[in-house]
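Researcher: Let's continue the batch. This sequence belongs to 5-methylcytosine-specific restriction enzyme subunit McrC, and it's 445 residues. Same format as the previous ones, please.
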Amino acid sequence: MTYVIAREYDLLVRGVAPQEAGVHGLPPESFDALRAFLQTPVEGHKGQEEVIARPTLRGTQPALRLQQWVGVIRTPDGTTVELLPKTHDRAGDADGETVGRSRALLFKMLAAAGDNYRAALPADLDPAQMRLFEVVLRYALEVLRAAIRRGVPHRYREIQEERAGLRGRLDLSRQLRQPPHRAHLLHVTYDEFLPDRPETRLVRLTVERIARMTGRSDSRRLARELLHALADVPASRDVRRDFTLWKLERGYTHFAPALDICRLILGELNPLTAGTAARVTAVLFDMNRVYESYVAQLLRTQHPEWQVQTQVKGQHLGRVLPQPSGKARPVFALRPDLMIHPPGQPVVIADTKWKRLKADRAFPHGVGNADAYQMLAYSEVFQSEPGQRVLCLIYPYLAGLPNHLPDIQLPGGQTLKLLTVDLHQETPTIGLHGWLDQRGLEVNS
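Model: Same format as before. Here are the structure tokens for 5-methylcytosine-specific restriction enzyme subunit McrC:
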């Protein structure tokens, strides 16, 4: 079976690939299955529809240009494509980073972006050295194990059965219809405290599916242990209905992280139909969203007194002049990545940009005009309070860039700050805090 490790914006070609960095060949059948799946529109970072890969040509070979999505994809014939984050430090090997370093970076960011990957793997397992598909499955098992160890949710269920002895309440209506040859048996109704409920049924089905998908013996062994703990729970037969019925009582809140795991395994990893015949198994993450969540979590952790909002909706840049109906229709929706509310200071608007600045160019190192125009639009709508208006563009740090980039004064009096985050530091910092602290002292003096 073919196993391909690619990065964002690499090229996948149909057939044999040339010996060239960033170009990967796939068997024709696998490529065709991927082409159908990867061109299915999905919801992107700002709510707009986009595709995971764009069709192109490399010479005469059909090809797919990957976008900012990372994760793992498996085709029906077993071909697996592992998509890792693009390089931000080109020192080292020809691709800029080792595969292990890219995996470690991805899971560090995912751990900050959501609860699914905050479970601790056993000390003898190094996720940077495991294939991404297996790491996803093992993290899922570890989260479920932690939830099950703290107690499997139960609830009372009404049981109706025919038995020799009385238990609970006698069902008189059914007993009166009992035929003479079964008069020695009683129809009873009673309540029993059972683990059979929507949440546990979904977890049972999730563990069963992981046990079938994983290729690691230790993961299969762990799955069997969890299935033993859920021996009295049937697997879900109506996944959609059980998800709608998911509701945990106060004593079972420790089971809440299992919801996202079940959605991941039963949703994203569930075989998806692409086209008419191709069936592809995939779990993918939009790096724009992951990076935004990672930066927001860094800010919240380092400055718990700040209020940090993400993807604020409901505001528009303009309105259509009143129509005959008398109602003005809003147009040009605005959705800044981050709104930061430092105590006692005006709001700061920031956008996270999962892009490579160009260290070999003069300042502003390739920052796009459209990004600056977008920040001006945000400022007009979201920064109505008096005072100095601060806008930030936050990029990943790239070797060769200055540690501190100059501020940019915009025509309306706004200050545009270009900040970078060194993702390979153990605890990255964002340079916004020092400037805000200094400004706070000036305001209070």
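Researcher: Any comment?
Model: The chain has four domains: 1-97+271-285, 99-154+195-268, 155-194, 303-444.
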